Amino acid sequence: MNVVDKKPEKRSRYSAGVMEYRQMGYWDPDYEPKDTDVLAVFRLTPQDGVDPIEAAAAVAGESSTATWTVVWTDRLTACDKYRAKCYRVDPVPNAPGSWFVFIAYDLDLFEPGSIANLAASIIGNVFGFKPIKALRLEDMRLPIGYVKSFQGPPTGIVVERERLDKFGRPLLGATVKPKLGLSGRNYGRVVYEALKGGLDFTKDDENINSQPFMHWRDRYLYCMEAVAKAEAASGEVKGTYLNVTAATMEDMYERAEFAKQLGSVIVMIDLVIGYTAIQSMAKWARKNDMILHLHRAGHSTYTRQKNHGVSFRVITKWMRLAGVDHIHAGTVVGKLEGDPNMTRGYYDICREDYNPKRLEHGLFFDQHWASLNKVMPVASGGIHAGQMHKLVDTLGEDCVLQFGGGTIGHPMGIAAGATANRVALEAIIFARNAGRDILREGEEILETAAKKSLPLKQALEIWKDVTFDYASTDTPDFLPTATAAE
Amino acid sequence: MRLTQGCFSYLPDLTEADIRTQVQYCIDKGWAVNIEFSDDPHPRNTFWEMWGLPMFDIKDAAAVMLELNACCKVHGDSYIRVSGFDSSHGWESVRISFLVDRPKNEPGFRLIRTEGAGRMVRYSVQSMTAVAE
Question: What global pTM score does this model have?
């Protein structure tokens, strides 16, 4: 990394022709990033024989002002300012041929409050660039001035808890199963049983929209009957994430309005609706006192593989800015991809006001959130009551734990499954607060609680041996070995 | 019915020793401890009556237990809850809340359905205690 080219004289810089990107001003190892710059770090794998610095400069160029040739119209602008500057290229530890590339972007390159604009700039063109074999956006540092231009989560963790009147423990949810095929009436039955049994939320799955077997209005009507009935039976605020994902914004607004009229406290969207639609729904939710749940449908197509795509921590940052109240962020112990250290990074992005740089969690930069509302991470997929101590220990209490199969698959029925989860959770929280070491004594705490709760006893028996022990794909680069999920 | 608000309503009713552990947890966290009571536990009834002011800067759970016993003596057949309040920046709200006493006979709630055009229904949860008064 000792190639330091002198910047060419102005006159030759703008002669017609093709020039190396690094000579066009996109490589500047002396550049000191400003507090107001947007910073990005990419994992870059150049094509064989391509110099990494030149490839890195090309990434900076193609994600800011450059095109493949010199254009005289640059001279009509303050082009030095608008050029992104690659200021650092480091080899990726234990991965020959790939490099961490740090690029600084001037704040003026971005429209305030627009994730679509940020995404179009940073990941718009450059991922298909021929001299690059693979490219992954690993992390970003968003300056405070830019953070402040976003609304952020419409509700936030604190106000969500106040509205729901639920404090001091993770919230409990379940996704209605089977995902597809239930009629509205049967679907509502699952919602009622689960909420009556002790869950706080039930949830539509990502692909439940409005299909031949269940029109969306039918689902909303039966679900809200179930929610109201469970509220009256328990004296608690209950909710069901009504998925408003639809083909057009007009359809989504119509569905969200209907959910509101029926008294729902929460609506849900899928990540696949796109950044602009998400920001629109965030504004709608803020205006209508609605909690906004985001299901990260589709993210693994670009977040999972280490060498190419966009890391989930970047998506999490964008979603906190765009403004969602809940985001699925991994379970560590469940059936879906999630290295414990990487997951910790996502949870910190959701819940902290300040994230210090922590390479072992995948956080490459200090990030200040300027009191933007916090996002409640959701742990969902292959978890059950017998793991409650591990879940609470790893994920903390400001999250939603979603037991789909782990509620509905209970041998004594859905309400019993819900009760088992709630008893397990309360027993673990109580024990933790009372000073016990829940990670070491967890199983014993659950066994003791099960003596007074038959549903929990049955849940522990049926699921005691269920674990998903596979190595993760997306692991930190700054630990010697991959950490296997427990 | 059994009202299941709060952190521990699915566990057997808390003993005095149990309550003490949770109060001490709040104190150790630096949270103020608040005692409240109500006959109307409607889920939207946010503001229960306060038993005195929230207790700031308490060192030992014993002081809270003393107040709690006094409250139970006077409002023994009401719902009583204890909450921990965190004044640190970014929270400035309740961090834990749990029921410590409840009436022997819990009258529960009634669900009122007001039918509208189409199949629209407006739901309203009515507290039976509040109706009786």
Answer: 0.94
